[in-house]
Amino acid sequence: MKIKRITIYSVAVIILMSVVSCREYVEIDTYGTRTLKKTNDYQYLVNNKGNFETTSILPILSSDDLDGKPSVSAVNQWNQQYLNAFLWSESFFGDDQQDIGWVNLYKHIYIANEILSGVMDSEDGSTSQKQVIAAEAKVHRAFAYFSLANQYAAIYNPSSASSQEGLPLLLTPDLFQNLNRVSLQRIYDQILDDLLTSLDALPSSSTLNHHPSKIAVYLLLSRVNLTMRNFEEAGKYADMALALNPQLLNLEDYVSEIYPQPLKDPEILLSKLTAGSITGPINPELIGIYDDKDLRLTYFLENNASLGGFKYMKPTKSGSFYAVVGLSTPEIYLNRAEVYARNNDATKVVEMLNAVRQKRFKASDYIALTVSDVQTDLLQSVINERRREFVGTDLRWYDMRRFTLDGSYFKTVVREYNGQTVSLEATSPRLVFPIEQKVLDFNPEIGQNPR
């Protein structure tokens, strides 16, 4: 049997596509390495949440969650990369800077590929244990490719996805591979295949939320199918997740308590974290769609005079530094609500929205929505609830991209900073992030995204 070694803790592990070329070996200290021989060695890889948990951060800067006219005091707390992403600049990174989101997500893929290439032939483990490990690796790989596709690849369009440019598709841990991009359709086909073939081996839910489970996979399948505009499939998988009785937190229960830390938050179905934190004022237009008594204004946001508006605070309310950007229960309801809205089923839209909203108000303040409250524009009602619930996460950027195919539901975003005014329209190539130049210097066949 072939025996492999992989660095567990350090990002000095050979990371395909990172600032160092995948065609170069990085010096690896023997400290912190394990021989991948026994099944428990692979189990160790999936148990170590640091291998798969930290993702990216720039989608939050690029979305319209943030105030388009930030104060100088707010921007002064950002680094240049953050400012460049906020302004959708031609390039985000300087000569000595690294795109940590790209690096992290391809690291997840590399480690998943290491697991998948060897776990089924490993020693001293049962077949079922090996299958679970492989299934978890597939889910992490699928999540990483979905995140990459919604940052660095074209917006998925069913009519043209087979000819749209996607990403380099790496399915083995080999360091010397063809890095030409495959079609966007091929990327999404792989994501779906990884998720669907992982289901049988996974438990319905996980005791520790950094481990994938059936309910997390159902939700991710719903998210992916929404993006692919396979709306009936998105609804089907949301229903399958709902059948497993996901838990919604009642925010009123935490009026005098600390909001649960990510590992103890029952709403989190698959924990993924941002690669850093952001302090910045929230878009006043977004604040305007909250009810004054909505507890999310207290638990997710905070009015901060020094920044000139509300800022995102949910991580610090739970004692965490980074925001959770993985999979969570509210998305199940709101994905289902969106599909109902697209089918013009106002009664079911109200049912799904109220399921979430009743947990976001004090019982004495809650007033259930009625059909008359949403019937003027069902889809916009769902979009507004998604914005309230997912503020400060990458989901808004992903939603903005896919709503470019829904006409007026994408609103042109305008930024003003230091005498400069920039706008982001539905047809703008800046809805796709640039590839870091150092990656292209080593791997020119990847090619830069249109700017």
Automatic annotation (TrEMBL):
Task: Quote any Pfam family the record assigns.
Answer: SusD_RagB
Under the heading InterPro entries, the entry gives: SusD-like_N, SusD_RagB_dom, TPR-like_helical_dom_sf
Q: SUPFAM superfamilies, alphabetically?
A: TPR-like
Query: Which ranges carry the SusD-like N-terminal domain?
Result: 77-226
State where it is primarily located.
membrane
Q: Does the keyword Signal apply?
A: yes
Q: Where is the protein found, in the record's own terms? A: Cell outer membrane
UniProt keyword terms in alphabetical order = Cell outer membrane, Membrane, Signal
- RagB/SusD domain span: 331-450
> Could you give one GO CC term from the UniProt record?
cell outer membrane
Family statement: Belongs to the SusD family.
Q: What is this protein called?
A: RagB/SusD family nutrient uptake outer membrane protein
